[in-house]
Design goal:
- Helix content is 36%, strand content 13%.
- By secondary structure, it is an alpha/beta fold.
- The protein has one domain: Aldolase class I (TIM Barrel, Alpha-Beta Barrel), CATH 3.20.20.70.
- The longest helix is centred in the C-terminal third of the chain and has 19 residues.
- The protein is globular.
């Protein structure tokens, strides 16, 4: 049995079926809240570029849960907003119970209020902490253990040696994001709402012109960008460092089939690493056999040095 599990994004029954084809071990999803126009309890707007980020109804969520359980896949319910006002306690628990009633397996949160409310209202589901919690020291990890947390999403900026040290001193299962990161406190900044340029895109991923102390403009740099796009080549090292779950994000992607294919590549890599093959061998095989790898993956990630745990010009520039 594989010791390294893959967690994939889902927002609909169709997307769930695509992830089953990719042979994922677990899915993460949110549910559209009852009384919010745009916000949600899971750290993102209800739509991104007019594409839903959450399951639309409880009926569809039930169908997804049934499909998942029929195929031995765990359903992780995302309620991981990094801030929920105290006055929203009742609305939050109502939202959680909508998901619990249809059979979700785990709950991910990213603030201490949410953990307290789940325990107070006796929501008896395993609790995970998302990377938005930005927990980076052993004292914090011990505190979360004492609160009954079982798994933790590691902040983007943590390196392999730091992860390995954490795994030696915590009982928490460690989760890393396999693609598309946004900083140690991802989601806390407001760069995405920058009014100066409608085309700035994701602020932490944008290129910036920087002037030196003489006023000369330096070459455009991605100074805020941690480059966590691809961690395939580091899967053996992540496994040896104590990571037990790789989570892919992308519930809001326009084409779920593309995301499913990304999951297939991650699953292939994990499976073959656990069979004793090296990353170099898997890389070479995909070079010869996989069209998406050659047409999309290599140009987008490999050729642009968008690596999570390898030293590249982008990671060296990251502050």
């Amino acid at each position: 049995m594989s010791t390294l599990k893959l967690i994939a994004p889902v927002r609909s029954v169709f997307m769930m079926k695509q992830m089953l084809d990719a042979d994922v071990d677990e899915v993460h999803l949110g549910l559209k809240p009852l009384n919010f126009a745009n916000l949600s309890f899971d750290s993102r707007y209800q739509t991104v570029n007019n594409i839903p980020t959450q399951v639309e109804t409880e009926e569809e969520l039930l169908e997804i849960v049934k499909l998942a359980h029929k195929n031995g896949v765990i359903v992780n319910f995302m309620a991981n907003s990094h801030y929920i006002p105290q006055s929203f306690e009742e609305a939050f628990i109502t939202h959680i119970n909508r998901a619990v009633e249809v059979g979700i397996d785990r709950i991910t949160v990213s603030n201490l209020n949410a953990i307290h409310w789940l325990k107070k209202h006796q929501v008896n589901k395993p609790i995970d902490v998302g990377s938005f919690m930005a927990a980076t020291n052993l004292g914090y990890y011990k505190f979360l253990e004492n609160q009954g947390v079982e798994r933790i999403g590691l902040p983007q900026g943590m390196q392999l040696d730091e992860i390995q040290q954490l795994s030696l001193h915590t009982k928490l299962d460690l989760v890393v994001t396999g693609n598309f990161g946004g900083g140690n406190v991802c989601g806390h900044c407001r760069l995405s709402e920058c009014p100066t340029d409608l085309d700035i895109g994701q602020g932490c991923r944008s290129g910036y012109k920087v002037s030196d102390f003489k006023g000369q403009i330096m070459k455009t740099t991605q100074a805020l960008d941690g480059a966590t796009d691809c961690s395939l080549c580091s899967i053996p090292e992540l496994k040896n460092a104590g990571v037990r779950y790789i989570k892919l994000i992308g519930r809001e992607v326009p084409n779920p089939i593309t995301t499913s294919k990304m999951c297939q590549i991650y699953k292939l890599w994990i499976t073959q690493v656990e069979q004793g093959r090296s990353s170099a061998e898997i890389f070479k095989e995909l070079d010869h056999e996989d069209l998406m790898w050659n047409m999309m993956w290599k140009p987008r990630f490999c050729e642009k040095k968008r690596c999570s745990y390898l030293e590249t010009p982008v990671t060296k520039a990251y502050v």
